[in-house]
TrEMBL record:
This is Integration host factor subunit alpha. The gene is ihfA. Gene3D superfamilies: IHF-like DNA-binding proteins (4.10.520.10). InterPro entries: Hist_DNA-bd (IPR000119), IHF-like_DNA-bd_dom_sf (IPR010992), IHF_alpha (IPR005684). Belongs to the bacterial histone-like protein family. The lineage of its organism: Bacteria, Pseudomonadati, Pseudomonadota, Alphaproteobacteria, Acetobacterales. One of its GO terms (biological process) is regulation of DNA-templated transcription. This protein is one of the two subunits of integration host factor, a specific DNA-binding protein that functions in genetic recombination as well as in transcriptional and translational control. It comes from the Bacteria.
Length: 102
């Protein structure tokens, strides 16, 4: 499995945009901070031609320990979900999709 790191993203910004390495890293951190802040506030984040990140609330439910069979309450929590755009889905499947998503 290949993981894309923050350093790799900052280096790509440096190579393509022409900012200094420090400015590229700062830009990346600012973008990630803004996305995180929006999600923490419960607002969805839509990136055109990529997808939508959103936070949803899951209610309390009863789970079961698979080893012992004992029922255990699972507390309510917020979870992050991602829905890819049609453009991204098409690219993953080798299709050509027009980039007209807003």
């Amino acid at each position: 499995m290949n993981t894309i790191t923050r350093a790799q993203l900052a280096e790509a910004i440096y190579a393509q945009v022409g900012l200094s390495r420090n400015e590229s890293a700062a830009l990346l951190e600012d973008v990630l901070e803004r996305v995180s802040a929006a999600l923490e506030a419960g607002r969805p984040v839509k990136i055109s031609a990529f997808g939508t990140f959103s936070v949803r609330q899951k209610g309390m439910r009863v789970g079961r320990n698979p080893k012992t069979g004992v029922e255990v309450p699972i507390m309510p929590r917020r979870v992050l979900s991602f829905r890819p755009s049609q453009v991204l889905k098409g690219r993953l499947n080798g299709e050509t999709v027009a980039d007209d998503e807003d």
